[in-house]
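Review this:
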Amino acid sequence: QVSDRCDYVFVNGKEMKGKVNALVNFTYQYLSAPLQMTVWVPRLPLQIDISDTELSQIKGWRVPVVSNKRPARDSDDEDEEERRGRGCTLQYQHAMVRVLTQFVAEDSGPWGQLSYLLGSDWQFDITDLVRDFMKLEDPHIARLQEGRILVGREVGMTTMQVLSPLSDSILAEKTVTVLDDKVTITDLGVQLVSGLSLFLQPSAATSRAIVATAVAQELLHTPKQEAVVSTWIQFSDSSVTPLDIYDPKDFSLSAVSLDQGVLSVQPGAAPRWPVVAAEGEGQGALLRVDMLISEACQKSKRKSVLAVGSGSVRVKFGQNDAEAAAGGDYGGELENRASERRQRGWEQERQGHQGHQGHQGHQGHRGEGTLGRASTTARPVLRNKVVRNNRLDGPDDGQLQNIPIDFTNFPAQVELPRAGPGVEDELVQTPRGLSDLEIGMYALLGVFCLAILVFLINCAAFALRYRHK
Protein backbone atom coordinates (compact mmCIF):
# COMPACT_ATOMS: atom_id res chain seq x y z
CA GLN A 1 0.00 0.00 0.00
CA VAL A 2 0.97 3.64 -0.51
CA SER A 3 0.77 6.27 2.22
CA ASP A 4 -1.63 9.20 1.87
CA ARG A 5 1.24 11.63 1.24
CA CYS A 6 2.93 9.25 -1.24
CA ASP A 7 6.17 9.41 0.74
CA TYR A 8 6.42 5.69 1.53
CA VAL A 9 4.98 2.27 0.71
CA PHE A 10 4.18 -0.29 3.38
CA VAL A 11 2.53 -3.61 4.25
CA ASN A 12 0.11 -3.90 7.18
CA GLY A 13 -0.13 -7.68 7.59
CA LYS A 14 -3.39 -8.16 5.71
CA GLU A 15 -1.66 -9.02 2.43
CA MET A 16 -2.48 -12.50 1.12
CA LYS A 17 0.62 -13.13 -0.99
CA GLY A 18 3.99 -11.74 -1.98
CA LYS A 19 5.35 -10.90 -5.41
CA VAL A 20 8.65 -10.47 -7.21
CA ASN A 21 9.01 -7.15 -9.04
CA ALA A 22 5.73 -5.72 -7.80
CA LEU A 23 5.18 -2.45 -9.69
CA VAL A 24 4.45 0.87 -7.97
CA ASN A 25 3.77 3.83 -10.30
CA PHE A 26 4.56 7.40 -9.21
CA THR A 27 3.01 10.24 -11.23
CA TYR A 28 3.25 14.01 -11.03
CA GLN A 29 1.35 15.97 -13.68
CA TYR A 30 2.69 14.60 -16.97
CA LEU A 31 5.71 12.88 -15.37
CA SER A 32 5.65 9.27 -14.20
CA ALA A 33 8.15 6.70 -13.00
CA PRO A 34 7.76 3.03 -12.02
CA LEU A 35 9.34 1.38 -8.99
CA GLN A 36 9.83 -2.37 -8.84
CA MET A 37 9.83 -4.00 -5.41
CA THR A 38 9.82 -7.54 -4.06
CA VAL A 39 7.32 -8.25 -1.28
CA TRP A 40 8.17 -11.27 0.88
CA VAL A 41 5.50 -12.95 3.01
CA PRO A 42 5.84 -15.79 5.54
CA ARG A 43 4.75 -19.16 4.27
CA LEU A 44 1.91 -20.73 6.26
CA PRO A 45 1.62 -22.74 8.36
CA LEU A 46 4.50 -21.58 10.53
CA GLN A 47 6.74 -24.25 12.03
CA ILE A 48 6.97 -24.62 15.82
CA ASP A 49 10.29 -26.17 16.84
CA ILE A 50 10.37 -27.61 20.38
CA SER A 51 13.57 -29.19 21.66
CA ASP A 52 11.61 -31.87 23.55
CA THR A 53 7.88 -32.48 23.04
CA GLU A 54 7.70 -35.06 25.85
CA LEU A 55 8.37 -33.71 29.34
CA SER A 56 8.77 -35.77 32.51
CA GLN A 57 9.37 -35.19 36.20
CA ILE A 58 12.99 -35.14 37.35
CA LYS A 59 13.64 -37.65 40.13
CA GLY A 60 15.18 -36.11 43.23
CA TRP A 61 14.80 -32.48 42.13
CA ARG A 62 12.28 -30.92 44.50
CA VAL A 63 11.09 -27.35 44.03
CA PRO A 64 8.77 -25.21 46.18
CA VAL A 65 5.08 -25.41 45.34
CA VAL A 66 3.69 -22.06 44.23
CA SER A 67 0.46 -21.47 46.14
CA ASN A 68 -1.60 -18.41 47.01
CA LYS A 69 -2.89 -20.03 50.17
CA ARG A 70 -1.21 -19.18 53.45
CA PRO A 71 0.40 -22.32 54.93
CA ALA A 72 -0.94 -23.71 58.18
CA ARG A 73 0.98 -22.96 61.35
CA ASP A 74 3.62 -25.54 62.18
CA SER A 75 2.84 -27.68 65.19
CA ASP A 76 5.28 -27.75 68.07
CA ASP A 77 5.93 -31.48 67.81
CA GLU A 78 6.39 -31.49 64.00
CA ASP A 79 9.66 -33.03 62.89
CA GLU A 80 12.18 -30.63 61.35
CA GLU A 81 12.58 -32.85 58.26
CA GLU A 82 8.82 -32.92 57.62
CA ARG A 83 8.60 -29.15 58.02
CA ARG A 84 11.46 -28.49 55.56
CA GLY A 85 10.28 -31.05 52.98
CA ARG A 86 6.63 -30.02 53.03
CA GLY A 87 5.35 -27.76 50.26
CA CYS A 88 7.75 -29.11 47.61
CA THR A 89 7.13 -31.15 44.48
CA LEU A 90 9.25 -32.72 41.77
CA GLN A 91 10.57 -30.46 39.04
CA TYR A 92 9.36 -31.01 35.47
CA GLN A 93 11.68 -30.94 32.48
CA HIS A 94 11.94 -27.72 30.48
CA ALA A 95 12.23 -27.38 26.70
CA MET A 96 13.19 -24.58 24.32
CA VAL A 97 10.76 -23.23 21.73
CA ARG A 98 11.32 -21.53 18.38
CA VAL A 99 8.96 -20.48 15.59
CA LEU A 100 10.38 -20.81 12.08
CA THR A 101 9.12 -19.91 8.63
CA GLN A 102 10.16 -19.39 5.02
CA PHE A 103 9.63 -16.09 3.22
CA VAL A 104 8.21 -16.49 -0.29
CA ALA A 105 7.08 -14.34 -3.22
CA GLU A 106 5.38 -15.22 -6.51
CA ASP A 107 7.38 -14.83 -9.70
CA SER A 108 6.12 -12.39 -12.28
CA GLY A 109 5.96 -15.17 -14.88
CA PRO A 110 2.74 -16.81 -16.11
CA TRP A 111 3.16 -19.88 -13.91
CA GLY A 112 3.39 -17.88 -10.67
CA GLN A 113 6.14 -20.10 -9.27
CA LEU A 114 7.27 -19.31 -5.73
CA SER A 115 10.63 -17.70 -5.05
CA TYR A 116 12.26 -18.18 -1.65
CA LEU A 117 14.29 -15.62 0.23
CA LEU A 118 17.87 -16.97 0.12
CA GLY A 119 16.57 -20.28 -1.28
CA SER A 120 14.00 -22.95 -0.49
CA ASP A 121 16.26 -24.63 2.09
CA TRP A 122 16.38 -21.62 4.43
CA GLN A 123 14.09 -20.77 7.33
CA PHE A 124 13.93 -17.70 9.57
CA ASP A 125 13.61 -17.61 13.35
CA ILE A 126 10.64 -15.30 13.99
CA THR A 127 10.02 -16.23 17.62
CA ASP A 128 10.46 -12.66 18.88
CA LEU A 129 7.85 -11.42 16.38
CA VAL A 130 5.11 -13.86 17.41
CA ARG A 131 5.86 -14.51 21.09
CA ASP A 132 2.90 -12.37 22.19
CA PHE A 133 0.54 -14.52 20.10
CA MET A 134 1.75 -17.93 21.33
CA LYS A 135 -0.40 -19.86 23.80
CA LEU A 136 -1.06 -23.34 25.13
CA GLU A 137 -4.53 -24.81 24.71
CA ASP A 138 -4.51 -26.17 28.28
CA PRO A 139 -2.27 -24.04 30.54
CA HIS A 140 -2.79 -26.46 33.44
CA ILE A 141 -0.68 -29.11 31.69
CA ALA A 142 2.20 -26.88 30.55
CA ARG A 143 3.06 -23.21 30.45
CA LEU A 144 5.19 -21.00 28.23
CA GLN A 145 7.80 -18.92 30.00
CA GLU A 146 9.20 -15.76 28.37
CA GLY A 147 7.91 -16.98 25.00
CA ARG A 148 10.82 -19.39 24.56
CA ILE A 149 10.79 -21.93 27.41
CA LEU A 150 8.18 -24.68 27.76
CA VAL A 151 7.60 -25.92 31.32
CA GLY A 152 5.59 -29.00 32.29
CA ARG A 153 3.02 -28.67 35.08
CA GLU A 154 0.96 -31.89 35.27
CA VAL A 155 0.43 -35.11 33.33
CA GLY A 156 -1.55 -34.76 30.12
CA MET A 157 -1.48 -33.64 26.51
CA THR A 158 -1.99 -30.16 25.10
CA THR A 159 -1.30 -28.13 21.98
CA MET A 160 0.91 -25.10 21.53
CA GLN A 161 -0.56 -22.60 19.05
CA VAL A 162 0.45 -19.41 17.29
CA LEU A 163 -2.65 -17.26 16.73
CA SER A 164 -3.11 -14.61 14.07
CA PRO A 165 -3.24 -11.07 15.49
CA LEU A 166 -5.66 -10.04 12.73
CA SER A 167 -8.14 -12.93 12.84
CA ASP A 168 -9.10 -16.06 14.77
CA SER A 169 -7.04 -18.34 12.53
CA ILE A 170 -4.27 -20.59 13.86
CA LEU A 171 -0.93 -19.97 12.13
CA ALA A 172 0.87 -22.97 13.68
CA GLU A 173 0.34 -25.68 16.26
CA LYS A 174 2.35 -28.45 17.91
CA THR A 175 1.36 -31.22 20.32
CA VAL A 176 3.08 -31.35 23.71
CA THR A 177 2.90 -34.31 26.11
CA VAL A 178 3.68 -34.30 29.84
CA LEU A 179 4.44 -37.89 30.86
CA ASP A 180 3.90 -39.71 34.13
CA ASP A 181 7.41 -41.21 33.85
CA LYS A 182 10.34 -39.91 35.87
CA VAL A 183 13.82 -39.25 34.52
CA THR A 184 17.11 -38.88 36.37
CA ILE A 185 20.04 -36.52 35.83
CA THR A 186 22.83 -38.70 34.46
CA ASP A 187 25.50 -36.06 33.91
CA LEU A 188 26.36 -32.48 34.77
CA GLY A 189 28.45 -30.88 32.03
CA VAL A 190 30.88 -28.14 33.00
CA GLN A 191 32.89 -25.70 30.88
CA LEU A 192 34.97 -22.67 31.80
CA VAL A 193 34.43 -19.58 29.63
CA SER A 194 37.03 -16.85 29.98
CA GLY A 195 35.84 -14.67 27.10
CA LEU A 196 34.15 -14.44 23.72
CA SER A 197 35.51 -13.69 20.26
CA LEU A 198 33.51 -12.79 17.16
CA PHE A 199 34.53 -13.80 13.63
CA LEU A 200 32.87 -12.57 10.42
CA GLN A 201 33.24 -14.23 7.02
CA PRO A 202 31.23 -14.53 3.78
CA SER A 203 28.80 -17.40 3.54
CA ALA A 204 29.74 -20.25 1.24
CA ALA A 205 26.06 -20.99 0.53
CA THR A 206 24.95 -17.56 -0.70
CA SER A 207 26.53 -14.22 -1.47
CA ARG A 208 23.73 -12.40 0.39
CA ALA A 209 24.64 -13.72 3.85
CA ILE A 210 27.56 -13.20 6.23
CA VAL A 211 28.65 -15.77 8.79
CA ALA A 212 28.98 -14.42 12.34
CA THR A 213 30.60 -16.94 14.69
CA ALA A 214 30.96 -16.32 18.42
CA VAL A 215 33.77 -18.40 19.90
CA ALA A 216 33.91 -19.15 23.63
CA GLN A 217 37.49 -18.94 24.93
CA GLU A 218 38.53 -21.54 27.49
CA LEU A 219 42.21 -20.69 28.02
CA LEU A 220 43.26 -18.53 30.99
CA HIS A 221 46.40 -16.65 29.94
CA THR A 222 46.99 -13.99 32.63
CA PRO A 223 47.31 -14.25 36.43
CA LYS A 224 44.05 -13.66 38.30
CA GLN A 225 42.09 -13.81 35.04
CA GLU A 226 38.51 -14.83 35.77
CA ALA A 227 36.25 -17.30 34.00
CA VAL A 228 32.59 -18.12 34.50
CA VAL A 229 31.40 -21.69 34.97
CA SER A 230 28.91 -22.77 32.31
CA THR A 231 26.81 -25.89 32.91
CA TRP A 232 24.28 -28.16 31.23
CA ILE A 233 22.47 -31.32 32.33
CA GLN A 234 21.86 -34.63 30.59
CA PHE A 235 18.88 -36.83 31.47
CA SER A 236 18.28 -40.57 31.37
CA ASP A 237 16.01 -40.11 28.33
CA SER A 238 19.09 -38.85 26.38
CA SER A 239 17.89 -35.24 26.27
CA VAL A 240 20.41 -32.48 27.00
CA THR A 241 19.43 -29.06 28.36
CA PRO A 242 21.34 -25.93 29.38
CA LEU A 243 20.87 -25.21 33.05
CA ASP A 244 20.13 -21.52 32.49
CA ILE A 245 16.58 -22.19 31.27
CA TYR A 246 15.59 -23.33 34.77
CA ASP A 247 14.57 -20.91 37.52
CA PRO A 248 17.68 -19.97 39.55
CA LYS A 249 15.63 -20.20 42.75
CA ASP A 250 15.19 -23.95 42.20
CA PHE A 251 18.88 -24.94 42.40
CA SER A 252 22.32 -23.79 43.45
CA LEU A 253 25.85 -24.57 42.26
CA SER A 254 28.88 -25.14 44.45
CA ALA A 255 32.36 -25.08 42.88
CA VAL A 256 35.53 -26.52 44.44
CA SER A 257 39.06 -26.20 43.06
CA LEU A 258 41.05 -29.45 43.15
CA ASP A 259 44.36 -27.57 42.85
CA GLN A 260 44.53 -24.20 44.58
CA GLY A 261 47.89 -23.55 42.98
CA VAL A 262 46.33 -23.47 39.50
CA LEU A 263 42.76 -22.32 40.05
CA SER A 264 40.79 -20.66 42.83
CA VAL A 265 37.06 -20.12 43.29
CA GLN A 266 36.28 -16.45 43.80
CA PRO A 267 34.63 -15.74 47.16
CA GLY A 268 31.52 -13.61 47.23
CA ALA A 269 30.60 -14.47 43.65
CA ALA A 270 26.98 -15.15 42.74
CA PRO A 271 26.16 -18.74 43.80
CA ARG A 272 24.21 -19.44 40.63
CA TRP A 273 27.20 -19.26 38.28
CA PRO A 274 30.50 -19.69 40.12
CA VAL A 275 33.49 -17.60 39.03
CA VAL A 276 37.07 -18.90 39.13
CA ALA A 277 40.45 -17.18 38.76
CA ALA A 278 43.83 -18.35 37.46
CA GLU A 279 46.60 -18.71 40.06
CA GLY A 280 49.31 -20.66 38.23
CA GLU A 281 49.96 -22.63 35.05
CA GLY A 282 48.49 -26.09 34.69
CA GLN A 283 45.73 -28.10 33.06
CA GLY A 284 43.39 -31.00 33.70
CA ALA A 285 40.07 -31.75 35.37
CA LEU A 286 40.78 -29.43 38.29
CA LEU A 287 37.28 -28.07 38.98
CA ARG A 288 34.40 -29.90 40.65
CA VAL A 289 30.86 -28.49 40.54
CA ASP A 290 27.97 -29.78 42.68
CA MET A 291 24.34 -29.09 41.78
CA LEU A 292 22.08 -28.79 44.85
CA ILE A 293 18.33 -28.43 45.23
CA SER A 294 16.92 -25.23 46.71
CA GLU A 295 17.38 -24.58 50.41
CA ALA A 296 13.61 -24.53 51.01
CA CYS A 297 13.27 -28.15 49.87
CA GLN A 298 16.21 -29.68 51.74
CA LYS A 299 14.78 -32.46 53.91
CA SER A 300 17.71 -32.58 56.31
CA LYS A 301 20.80 -30.67 57.29
CA ARG A 302 22.77 -32.79 54.85
CA LYS A 303 22.67 -31.13 51.44
CA SER A 304 20.83 -33.03 48.68
CA VAL A 305 23.23 -33.19 45.74
CA LEU A 306 21.49 -33.74 42.39
CA ALA A 307 24.56 -34.10 40.20
CA VAL A 308 28.33 -33.69 40.24
CA GLY A 309 30.43 -32.57 37.28
CA SER A 310 34.08 -31.81 36.63
CA GLY A 311 35.47 -29.10 34.38
CA SER A 312 38.66 -29.10 32.34
CA VAL A 313 41.04 -26.24 33.13
CA ARG A 314 43.76 -24.78 30.89
CA VAL A 315 46.03 -22.09 32.33
CA LYS A 316 49.04 -20.98 30.29
CA PHE A 317 50.36 -17.49 30.86
CA GLY A 318 51.33 -15.43 27.83
CA GLN A 319 49.21 -17.29 25.27
CA ASN A 320 45.89 -15.85 24.12
CA ASP A 321 43.13 -18.21 23.04
CA ALA A 322 41.82 -15.76 20.42
CA GLU A 323 45.29 -15.08 18.98
CA ALA A 324 45.96 -18.79 18.61
CA ALA A 325 42.69 -19.25 16.74
CA ALA A 326 43.27 -16.24 14.47
CA GLY A 327 46.84 -17.24 13.60
CA GLY A 328 46.19 -20.87 12.74
CA ASP A 329 43.61 -23.12 11.15
CA TYR A 330 40.36 -21.62 12.36
CA GLY A 331 38.10 -24.60 11.66
CA GLY A 332 40.60 -27.11 13.04
CA GLU A 333 41.16 -25.01 16.15
CA LEU A 334 37.45 -25.08 16.95
CA GLU A 335 37.33 -28.85 16.58
CA ASN A 336 40.48 -29.58 18.59
CA ARG A 337 39.78 -27.43 21.64
CA ALA A 338 37.04 -29.69 23.03
CA SER A 339 38.03 -30.89 26.48
CA GLU A 340 38.32 -34.48 27.67
CA ARG A 341 35.25 -33.92 29.81
CA ARG A 342 33.07 -33.07 26.84
CA GLN A 343 34.47 -35.91 24.75
CA ARG A 344 33.46 -38.37 27.46
CA GLY A 345 29.97 -36.84 27.59
CA TRP A 346 29.62 -37.19 23.83
CA GLU A 347 30.57 -40.88 23.97
CA GLN A 348 28.00 -41.49 26.70
CA GLU A 349 25.31 -39.78 24.68
CA ARG A 350 26.30 -41.72 21.55
CA GLN A 351 26.04 -45.04 23.41
CA GLY A 352 22.68 -44.02 24.83
CA HIS A 353 21.47 -43.07 21.36
CA GLN A 354 22.52 -46.43 19.92
CA GLY A 355 20.85 -48.26 22.80
CA HIS A 356 17.53 -46.55 22.03
CA GLN A 357 17.52 -47.07 18.28
CA GLY A 358 15.10 -49.98 18.68
CA HIS A 359 12.48 -47.72 20.27
CA GLN A 360 11.62 -45.80 17.13
CA GLY A 361 8.17 -44.81 18.35
CA HIS A 362 9.33 -42.96 21.47
CA GLN A 363 12.59 -41.48 20.22
CA GLY A 364 11.24 -40.63 16.80
CA HIS A 365 8.38 -38.60 18.23
CA ARG A 366 10.68 -36.88 20.69
CA GLY A 367 12.96 -35.62 17.93
CA GLU A 368 10.29 -34.90 15.33
CA GLY A 369 10.30 -31.41 13.93
CA THR A 370 13.33 -30.27 15.89
CA LEU A 371 16.64 -29.07 14.62
CA GLY A 372 18.45 -29.65 17.89
CA ARG A 373 17.87 -30.00 21.62
CA ALA A 374 20.23 -27.38 22.94
CA SER A 375 20.28 -23.62 23.04
CA THR A 376 24.05 -23.49 23.29
CA THR A 377 26.83 -25.97 22.69
CA ALA A 378 29.65 -27.56 24.63
CA ARG A 379 32.14 -26.78 21.93
CA PRO A 380 33.31 -23.17 21.97
CA VAL A 381 31.05 -22.03 19.13
CA LEU A 382 27.83 -20.14 19.90
CA ARG A 383 25.09 -18.81 17.67
CA ASN A 384 22.25 -16.48 18.58
CA LYS A 385 19.20 -17.48 16.51
CA VAL A 386 21.63 -18.77 13.85
CA VAL A 387 21.49 -22.30 12.51
CA ARG A 388 22.91 -24.05 9.47
CA ASN A 389 21.65 -27.61 9.32
CA ASN A 390 24.65 -29.12 7.51
CA ARG A 391 24.66 -32.70 6.28
CA LEU A 392 26.10 -35.05 8.87
CA ASP A 393 28.38 -37.98 8.29
CA GLY A 394 26.30 -40.43 10.29
CA PRO A 395 23.33 -40.84 12.61
CA ASP A 396 25.40 -40.22 15.72
CA ASP A 397 26.95 -36.93 14.63
CA GLY A 398 23.72 -35.04 15.18
CA GLN A 399 23.82 -35.99 18.85
CA LEU A 400 27.36 -34.69 19.20
CA GLN A 401 26.43 -31.25 17.91
CA ASN A 402 23.72 -30.51 20.44
CA ILE A 403 25.46 -30.64 23.84
CA PRO A 404 24.89 -27.21 25.36
CA ILE A 405 26.67 -24.80 27.57
CA ASP A 406 24.92 -22.07 29.46
CA PHE A 407 24.73 -18.39 28.53
CA THR A 408 21.90 -16.26 29.89
CA ASN A 409 22.21 -13.70 27.11
CA PHE A 410 21.76 -16.27 24.36
CA PRO A 411 18.03 -17.12 24.55
CA ALA A 412 17.68 -18.81 21.19
CA GLN A 413 18.29 -22.41 20.40
CA VAL A 414 21.70 -22.95 18.89
CA GLU A 415 23.58 -25.71 17.16
CA LEU A 416 27.21 -26.26 16.22
CA PRO A 417 28.19 -26.40 12.54
CA ARG A 418 30.67 -28.86 11.08
CA ALA A 419 34.16 -27.61 10.29
CA GLY A 420 34.13 -24.82 7.75
CA PRO A 421 31.74 -21.95 7.16
CA GLY A 422 28.07 -22.41 7.74
CA VAL A 423 26.52 -20.17 10.37
CA GLU A 424 23.88 -17.73 9.18
CA ASP A 425 22.22 -15.02 11.31
CA GLU A 426 18.50 -15.51 11.90
CA LEU A 427 18.45 -18.38 9.39
CA VAL A 428 17.90 -22.12 9.50
CA GLN A 429 18.66 -24.39 6.58
CA THR A 430 16.28 -27.33 6.22
CA PRO A 431 15.90 -30.16 3.73
CA ARG A 432 14.50 -28.87 0.46
CA GLY A 433 10.91 -29.82 -0.36
CA LEU A 434 8.92 -29.88 -3.58
CA SER A 435 7.47 -26.61 -4.82
CA ASP A 436 3.76 -26.25 -5.57
CA LEU A 437 4.47 -26.27 -9.31
CA GLU A 438 6.44 -29.52 -9.07
CA ILE A 439 3.68 -31.15 -7.02
CA GLY A 440 1.10 -30.09 -9.61
CA MET A 441 3.20 -31.39 -12.51
CA TYR A 442 3.71 -34.76 -10.82
CA ALA A 443 -0.01 -35.03 -10.04
CA LEU A 444 -0.91 -34.23 -13.67
CA LEU A 445 1.62 -36.79 -14.92
CA GLY A 446 0.10 -39.41 -12.63
CA VAL A 447 -3.40 -38.71 -13.98
CA PHE A 448 -2.16 -39.04 -17.58
CA CYS A 449 -0.46 -42.36 -16.81
CA LEU A 450 -3.61 -43.67 -15.15
CA ALA A 451 -5.74 -42.63 -18.14
CA ILE A 452 -3.36 -44.37 -20.57
CA LEU A 453 -3.44 -47.52 -18.45
CA VAL A 454 -7.26 -47.57 -18.43
CA PHE A 455 -7.31 -47.02 -22.19
CA LEU A 456 -4.93 -49.96 -22.80
CA ILE A 457 -6.99 -52.24 -20.56
CA ASN A 458 -10.17 -51.33 -22.48
CA CYS A 459 -8.43 -51.97 -25.81
CA ALA A 460 -7.21 -55.39 -24.65
CA ALA A 461 -10.68 -56.34 -23.41
CA PHE A 462 -12.27 -55.23 -26.70
CA ALA A 463 -9.70 -57.20 -28.75
CA LEU A 464 -10.30 -60.38 -26.77
CA ARG A 465 -14.05 -60.01 -27.09
CA TYR A 466 -13.80 -59.37 -30.87
CA ARG A 467 -11.52 -62.40 -31.40
CA HIS A 468 -13.93 -64.61 -29.44
CA LYS A 469 -16.82 -63.57 -31.70
In short: The first strand starts at residue 19 and ends at 28. The first helix runs from residue 80 to 85. Confidence is low (pLDDT under 50) at residues 68-85, 325-431. The helical segments are 80-85, 127-130, 321-327, 330-336, 340-355, 360-367, 397-400, 436-468.
